[in-house]
Write a structure and sequence with these properties.
Length: 386
């Protein structure tokens, strides 16, 4: 026999609904069913948040080197504070997107959305509409109202990748949103309050972009509440010992392979390479090698790293030449296999052209290719599929 004041107080304390006696049984059944559905949805949301946190712990940034350890130490501090904005810079492929997901999913905003946008992937007009939203009729083709990504990230995180490519006038609008914590959709005369953590990433030096007049210094200073620079893979090359097996296992699971043995010559090639594309390039190389490998051995044949070993290097002045070591590190049969493989690769597996380049017959070359099990990539892939 509650009053209106009692019902309001109960709802404010978290009650799903408020029923007065005497209560109709059908009404009670409906309310209980609705409350059950609401509770299930809430549990699913909490489970999703927990799983996301498990998927992106601080330990996701793998490596035992001093630089990787330092990155994890900084991340452990960042996820404990409600920081409003930060900049992540570093070369392409160093893991800026991974770090942004760690900060969001392990931080205080984990239960709210993480919205990602690549500023370099969208033209200026489309990026403005995507970020700030628009009203119906705001421009040609705007048939309905659309919530912008900033609104969608309310109480969560907005990850702006490649922010150095954002147009100057959009930079000023973004600065105003950050300062006022309000966003005005295109074609609207009202501002909407937003609470957003902004993570900006760039593989270009933003200070250089400021000096060139391509990036606003006031936006830079507003975003750089904290600035984090990720190390290149060549600066923590010993981390390959952990990274490579993890990535091999990942692609084993995806492609149904069982690669488990990485020979010493492969390790030497991986650690001697400069990795200009960093971890992204490493993933591409390992994916290719796992897909084309036969059995449990990680084959060096598909590495395709420029100058990854002396035995596969070619003189710069003659693309039709190759050099072989005569120091006992390569057997005569291995040399024969390498010559046949290289000739076929250069001729794009055209048996006639490769035989002509080697000064032999097509039948002889075919016999040697069969002897060493050398096949074109598409043939190897077809056999693996079978």
């Amino acid at each position: 026999y509650g009053t209106v004041a009692d019902s309001v107080r109960a709802l404010r304390l978290g009650a799903y609904d408020f029923l007065e006696k005497p209560c109709d049984q059908k009404r009670l059944d409906l309310v209980v069913s609705g409350a059950a559905r609401s509770a299930q949805a809430q549990r699913r949301l909490e489970d999703h948040t927990t799983n996301q946190k498990r998927a992106y712990p601080v330990e996701s940034f793998v490596g035992a080197s001093d630089k990787a350890t330092e990155v994890r130490d900084v991340l452990s501090r960042l996820i404990q504070v409600p920081i409003s904005a930060l900049i992540i810079d570093g070369e392409t492929g160093t893991g800026k997107g991974l770090v942004a997901r760690i900060i969001h999913n392990s931080g205080p905003r984990a239960k709210a959305p993480l919205v990602e946008v690549n500023c370099a992937a969208l033209p200026r007009e489309l990026l403005e509409s995507e970020l700030f939203g628009h009203e119906a009729g705001a421009f040609t083709g705007a048939k309905s109202k659309r919530r912008g990504l900033i609104q969608q990230a309310h109480e969560g995180t907005l990850f702006l990748d490649e922010i150095s490519e954002m147009h100057a006038d959009l930079q000023s609008k973004l600065l105003k949103v950050i300062e006022d914590q309000k966003v005005r959709p295109l074609g609207s005369d009202k501002e909407i309050a937003v609470d957003v953590q902004i993570i900006a990433a760039s593989n270009r030096d933003l200070k250089e972009r400021i000096a060139e007049g391509e990036f606003r210094s006031d936006l830079y200073h507003r975003l750089s509440v904290f600035r984090m620079t990720l190390p290149a893979l060549r600066e923590r090359i010993d981390d390959l010992d952990e990274l490579a097996p993890l990535i091999v296992d990942e692609f084993n699971a995806m492609a149904g392979r069982s690669v488990s043995e990485i020979p010493d010559d492969v390790w030497a090639a991986l650690k001697s390479y400069d990795w200009p594309g960093n971890v992204r390039e490493l993933r591409n190389v390992i994916e290719r090698c796992v897909l084309f490998s036969e059995g449990s051995l990680f084959s060096s044949r598909w590495l395709q790293l420029p100058g990854h070993s002396e035995s596969t290097s070619k003189p710069a002045g003659n693309a039709n030449s190759l050099s072989l070591p005569l120091d006992g590190s390569m057997s005569l049969e291995d040399m024969d296999r390498f010559i046949v493989t290289t000739a076929l690769e250069q001729a794009e597996y055209n048996m006639t052209a490769a035989a002509r380049n080697l000064g032999t017959t097509r039948q002889t070359l075919r016999y040697r290719a069969q002897k060493y099990g050398i096949k074109a990539p598409e043939e190897a892939g077809a056999n693996d599929a079978d």
